[in-house]
Design brief:
Keywords: Membrane, Transmembrane, Transmembrane helix. The chain has 105 residues and is mostly helical. It is 57% helix and 10% strand. The protein has one domain. It has a two-stranded antiparallel ribbon with strand order 1-2. A two-stranded antiparallel sheet has the order 3-4. A hairpin with a 2-residue loop joins strand 3 and strand 4. It is elongated, with a radius of gyration of 16 Å.
């Protein structure tokens, strides 16, 4: 019985992008979000009014999760793409609940 090996391709980027999205939303210490530090280093705003208001980092992470889903869906025959797609659905549901119920740090 031959085992079919999936090839590495664009779909393999799906779980990688999902991990990057989770890194963007990870907080440590005194509620410092790692994504805020990364965005500040690129000169992008993390908050709408300094350190208060709308937290843009969450929306950047949400966009990356959506992109990870579509990459995993389109290239499902690539290695780890299906796992990235299914994980993106789970994370997308969690982030949507956070946005709806305003449980953002």
């Amino acid at each position: 019985m031959d085992k079919v090996r999936k090839r590495v391709g664009i779909g393999t980027c799906s779980p990688i992008m999902l991990v990057l999205a989770l890194i963007l939303s990870f907080s440590f210490g005194n509620n410092i979000v790692l994504g805020d530090v990364i965005l500040d280093s690129f000169g992008l705003k993390a908050w709408s009014n300094g350190h208060v208001g709308v937290h843009y980092t969450l929306f950047y992470a949400l966009a990356m999760v959506v992109i990870a889903y579509f990459i995993g869906d389109k290239y499902e025959d690539h290695r780890w793409a299906k796992a990235g797609k299914n994980s993106a659905i789970f994370v997308l549901a969690l982030l949507t609940l956070i946005i709806i119920f305003n449980l953002v740090f």
